[in-house]
Structure formats: structure tokens, C-alpha cells
Write a structure and sequence with these properties.
By secondary structure, the protein is α+β, with helices and mostly antiparallel strands. It has 13 helices and 32 strands. The strands form six sheets. The chain has a nine-stranded mixed beta sheet with strand order 8-9-15-16-13-11-10-14-17. The N and C termini lie far apart (78 Å).
Length: 640
């Protein structure tokens, strides 16, 4: 490091306070020719070895080289450092407005040492990791320009949680490529969550909740991740940072060449939510499209099914003009806020369903307004694909539940014939009753499709056993388990009423693959189709971790005829900023395409329905006369 140096001293009125801090001293003559000795405290002494400065609340004078300028302050790093890996050589100087400094300048600053909690006062995570800052700058002087600080090499995952605290405020380099694990806040805060060793997986998607393996994965996720920040405190930045090819940055893409300053802050839009260490780049990162967009998946077979959470398809607009079911108030309305938004939303969803080209589609988060919203979607699909391509599966309005949203089903009449009326499970445990329809394929084979949407993980109104138990399953897990058991019984009744053992239950169960509700069904004999065809399936990303909330569970007799099952990653991997919404978008990247048509990926399933030998058909029909002989999710016949 080279560059000019100079001495700097402050007014005598604050000299006593500075001397109390220890450190170096300098002297200078004031206007009356009197000399005042002033203590100069190195940055590493201010930072100390813990999460909080030993000098918090004191006024200090320090010096360093500017490494990064943000819109509300700048990072300052000691020119030499103390060589102690336990203490940081950098610090953030908060100015509140754009500072008049430049990278490479050496400054001497007088300010107060402050510990800043980046979250709510009740946020235990951010309270335990406050950011040490210098605030209320009372004196600042340029000592020279043209200085450089060599970035300190660091690696992820951290050896121990919180290890990056020792680099807080310092210029660092991460040589290994990192994977984009979350881009939900890219458009709002200019933040992207990166991770080492590939993308992050929800612990309960891989391991049973509350186990040591699940806890270990959660801890590893924390040690493996860092937030790439744009260095701005502004919301909804323009241009949107880190947008790349085709105006997107997909989860699963990789980022290389990371050089920047370490900071700490929220990794979500809730002040009570999770936080993480952040990196403000000083060199433009290199993004590689390692997870390209792909065409709708081919799953084989002679019948194709799909499950698709539409993220609130409401024809009643959330514009205050009318209310929505069940309370007829605006608070129950969701989805698009205007006709322009709804047109964009509708277009994206239609394009997605058209590309999947399934013979029957189970839909979640359809407005519970009779058949109006569903008929609107079918009308749009048929305008796009040809008259009569799709038809709605009719259901009694009284059987759609007590929530503002419901499940629904559409099918291609030319490919699948409805046998009898649709049925809904009347068990009161369901806010959104499962919807079942028995179909006959072109070769005469029969199966029953059941669409589901279990209670969400949100904690509003949770009490007793439905409270978050701290095992990774969120709130209302007890209710979801009861819903799974009710579904299990419903499947048995469908087998008996249809005279056919082939049933497949699809939908958003709001439970990751190893959580209690899914396990309750698989332990009963239902077969998890997504797990059969992929070791790491995911349909949703939350807090940076990916997992399967959307499932396909088949009875064994039908499982033997499933030719493929996979998610089409058109939503979970895409940044939310490219969706249909119009608000808070100084840079609108909307396209009339399937991408970010929802927040859940559709799940696509292929069936190879085989005609049975007449003797087996007769035997199966004889057995269906006694429901006890057809326990749910158990095979009743051996397929040829």
C-alpha cells in the first residue's frame, strides 16, 4: 500500500473523551497556537473480538482507507491491520446520506461507536449480531488518495456459525463459485442469497423434523450462505441489480469473482425474520446461467396430469370496489389489484397450462366465487388452444369450503371422460375440501384424481398443538396431519365408490417431503411419485431453501403405472420481480410467458394406463363390494 499521509487532531473540547479510548496520539496547533493531544483508536480496537464493540457509546477518532461507498455511508479499513484473525480491520461509517468520499481515500474520522440492530428489537438473531458502526461524524479529514487494500480471502461454508463476524466491514474475496439460492428480494432490496456447495434445501425436505440430521442441515445452510447486496439502502432499485440473460437471474445459476465488503442484515422483508451476513461487491460479479430455462417436461405414458398452485386466481379484483368470499370484504380479496394486472396474470397462467398440455389439471388457490373464476380460466385456455379443449369439472358451490380460495379441476373431454359426479370430502377438518373425479381414459381404463390444498404454515390464529413446535414444520402441523388422515379415509371411500383401486392425490400439502402429513400418507401405503423420480425435488423456495410442497401420492396399483413425475421449474427459480404485478416496478420486466406465473412450480405426472385381463377386472369388481377388503393406499389386484 502506498500513498501520502498526514496528521490530524481534533478540538480540545472533545480531547478528553478521545484520550479515554487509548490508542495513538497526535498533536497540532489550534488558532491560538496551543497544542492538543488526541487519541487515535485503530479500527481493530474499536471492533474488538466479540460481536459488540468494547467501546460502544464512546466518541473515538480513527483512520483508514475507504473500500466501498454506499448511498448512506462508507466502509473504512485500517491500512495495515493488526494481524489478529479474531478482530476485524474494517468498519462502516454511517452518514445517512450519500457521503462525499471516494474509494481509495485515506481518512481520519471522529464519530461515536454504535451497535446497530438491523432487525426488530424482539429479533433474537439480529440482536445477537449487531453491526458496529461509526455514527454522528463530527470531524473528517482527507489524509491522502490512491490507497489500495488487498482483499482478505475467505471461504464458505464457515467453519463455525458466526465466523464472518471477524470480517465485518472488511474487504474480502471469495474464490469459489457460489450458487443462487434465493432471488425473491432481488427487485425489492437488491439482494440475492448465495450458497456454497450448491443450492440450499429445506431440512425437512430431506430429513425427518426434529432429528439431528435435520438440525445439522439447517446449521449447515446457515454456515453456507451469504447475501449478495447491491450496496444501496433504497427499495425497488432501478436498474435491478444482477439481472442477466433474458432479464432474469435463476436460482441454480452460479456467481463467480466475488470481491466486496462484509456486512450483516435482514435476509427477508420482515424485521422479525432471518438475517445473514452480506457482501457489498466492489467488483461486478460474474453470473453464469447454469440452470437454464427448459421446455415443459416429458413424462411419458398415455395420460398426463398436472398439479398447479395458481397463487390466487381472482376475477374479483383487489381494488376495493367489491368484497370477496367468505366475509364479502376487501380483506378476503387476493391476487390482481387491477384489470391490467389480472390480464397479465391470466396470460402467464394460460401460457403455462397450455405448454404443459395435461389431460387433467388440479388447481389450487382459485377464487371461491362459484364457477366464475374457473370458467374464466377455461374460457381463456380454449381461446388459446381451440374451442372445447378444456372443460371445468363441476362441483356444488356448497362443497368448496369456507376459505376465500378453493381447489378446482379441469380436463380435456376428448382425452378423459368423467365417470359420475365429482365428490368433495365433507370432513370439517378441511377449509378447502379435497375434490375428486373419476375418469375413464381412451382405452377404457379408470382412475380417480384427487386435488388437495392443506392448511398453510403461517401462524395466524395458531393455538395449542398447532403452534410452531420449533422442528421446522411451522404452524398448524397438527391440523395438516389430521387433514392427511382424512384424505387417507377419503381415498378408501373413493376406491369403494368407483370400484377401482387406482387413485392419485395431488396438490399443495404445505408440507415438505419428510414432514408428518406426507409421512402419514406414505406410511399408509401411498407412494410418493416425485420422490421416485428425483432425489432432490422442489416446487417452492422459502427463506433461501428449496423443497417440495406440491406432491403426487398414488395408490400402489396406480403407482405401478406412473411413467414419470417431475416439477417444471418456471416459478420457484425465477425472481418475483418479473411477475404480473405492476406496483413498485420502476423497471418492468414482465413478459407474456409461463415464467413466474405463480410462486409454486407445477408438478407434471405421466400415467401408462394398461388394460386389464377380464378375469382380473371381474375379481376387482367383486372385491369392491366390501370396503373393508380395499384399505386405502393398498393394492387390491396384481396388474398384468
Amino acid at each position: 500500500m502506498t500513498g501520502p499521509t498526514s496528521n490530524f487532531c481534533v478540538q480540545a473540547s472533545i480531547a478528553a473523551a478521545l484520550l479515554a479510548s487509548g490508542g495513538l496520539a497526535c498533536s497540532a496547533a489550534d488558532s491560538n497556537g496551543r497544542f492538543t493531544r488526541v487519541a487515535v483508536t485503530p479500527i481493530y480496537t474499536i471492533q474488538g473480538t466479540g460481536s459488540m464493540s468494547p467501546l460502544a457509546g464512546r466518541i473515538v477518532t480513527t483512520s483508514g482507507v475507504v473500500t466501498k461507498v454506499n448511498d448512506n455511508g462508507y466502509f473504512l479499513q485500517d491500512i495495515a491491520g493488526d494481524g489478529n484473525p479474531a478482530t476485524s480491520d474494517g468498519i462502516f461509517v454511517f452518514t445517512g446520506a450519500a457521503p462525499r468520499v471516494a474509494a481509495g481515500q485515506r481518512l481520519q474520522v471522529t464519530a461515536r461507536v454504535t451497535e446497530f440492530n438491523t432487525g426488530a428489537a424482539s429479533n433474537a438473531q439480529t440482536a445477537a449480531h449487531p453491526v458496529t458502526e461509526l455514527t454522528g461524524v463530527s470531524a473528517q479529514r482527507l489524509l491522502g488518495s490512491g490507497f489500495g487494500i488487498a482483499p482478505t480471502p475467505i471461504a464458505l461454508p464457515q467453519t463455525t456459525s458466526g465466523e464472518l463476524e471477524r470480517y465485518e466491514g472488511m474487504l474480502v474475496r471469495i474464490a469459489a463459485p457460489l450458487t443462487v439460492s434465493q432471488n425473491h428480494f432481488q427487485g425489492r432490496f437488491g439482494q440475492v442469497t448465495l450458497s456454497a456447495g450448491g443450492r440450499l434445501e429445506a431440512p425437512t425436505n430431506r430429513h425427518r423434523p426434529g432429528t439431528s440430521a435435520a438440525r445439522a442441515l439447517a446449521e449447515l445452510n446457515g454456515r453456507s450462505s451469504i447475501v449478495l447486496d447491491d450496496g444501496s439502502s433504497l427499495q425497488h432499485p432501478h436498474p435491478i441489480p444482477y439481472i442477466g440473460l433474458a432479464n432474469t437471474l435463476r436460482s441454480g445459476d452460479t456467481v463467480r469473482g466475488l470481491v466486496g465488503v462484509i456486512d450483516y442484515g435482514l435476509a427477508t422483508d420482515s424485521s422479525a425474520g432471518p438475517a445473514a451476513y452480506r457482501l457489498h461487491p466492489t467488483v461486478a460479479p460474474i453470473v453464469t446461467r447454469d440452470n437454464p430455462r427448459r421446455a415443459a417436461p416429458a413424462v411419458g405414458g398415455n395420460v398426463k396430469l398436472a398439479s398447479f398452485n395458481l397463487q390466487n386466481y381472482f376475477t374479483t379484483l383487489d381494488d376495493g370496489a367489491r368484497g370477496c368470499f367468505p366475509s364479502n370484504t376487501r380483506s378476503d380479496c387476493r391476487g390482481a389489484d387491477s384489470g391490467a394486472e389480472f390480464k397479465r396474470q391470466r396470460t402467464k397462467i394460460i401460457e403455462a397450462i397450455a405448454a404443459i398440455d395435461a389431460d387433467a389439471v388440479g388447481l389450487m388457490e382459485m377464487e371461491n366465487n362459484g364457477s366464475t373464476a374457473l370458467d374464466d380460466l377455461v374460457e381463456g385456455l380454449n381461446a388459446r388452444l381451440g374451442a372445447g379443449t378444456y372443460a371445468a369439472v363441476p362441483v356444488r358451490a356448497s362443497a368448496t369450503g369456507t376459505d376465500a380460495i378453493k381447489v378446482a379441476m379441469i380436463h380435456k373431454p376428448a382425452r378423459l371422460a368423467r365417470l359420475g359426479a365429482a365428490r368433495s370430502d365433507a370432513n370439517p377438518v378441511h377449509q378447502r375440501p379435497p375434490l375428486a373425479q373419476t375418469f375413464a381414459a381412451a382405452n377404457g381404463e379408470v382412475f380417480t384424481l384427487v386435488v388437495n390444498h392443506f392448511k398453510s404454515k403461517r401462524c395466524n390464529g395458531a393455538t395449542g398443538a398447532d403452534l410452531d413446535q420449533g422442528d421446522g414444520q411451522g404452524c398448524f402441523n397438527a391440523t395438516r396431519v389430521r387433514q392427511a388422515k382424512a384424505l387417507h379415509a377419503f381415498i378408501a371411500s373413493l376406491q369403494a365408490s368407483s370400484g377401482d383401486p387406482d387413485v392419485i392425490a395431488i396438490g399443495d400439502l404445505n408440507s415438505y417431503a419428510k414432514e408428518d402429513p406426507v409421512v402419514a400418507l406414505t406410511e399408509a401405503g401411498c407412494v410418493d411419485q416425485a420422490a421416485r423420480f428425483a432425489s432432490f425435488g422442489y416446487s417452492h423456495v422459502f427463506d433461501g431453501a428449496a423443497g417440495r410442497l406440491d406432491h403426487a401420492l398414488a395408490t400402489p396399483s396406480l403407482s405401478a403405472q406412473v411413467s414419470g413425475a417431475t416439477e417444471w421449474h418456471i416459478n420457484a427459480d425465477e425472481p418475483s420481480v418479473i411477475d404480473y404485478n405492476l406496483e413498485f416496478k420502476p423497471q418492468d420486466l414482465y413478459t407474456p410467458s409461463p415464467y413466474r406465473s405463480s410462486d409454486h412450480d407445477p408438478l407434471v405426472i405421466g400415467l401408462t394406463l394398461r388394460a386389464e385381463q377380464p378375469a382380473l377386472i371381474r375379481r376387482r369388481r367383486t372385491r369392491t363390494t366390501s370396503p373393508r377388503r380395499l384399505p386405502p393406499c393398498r393394492p387390491s389386484v396384481v396388474r398384468s
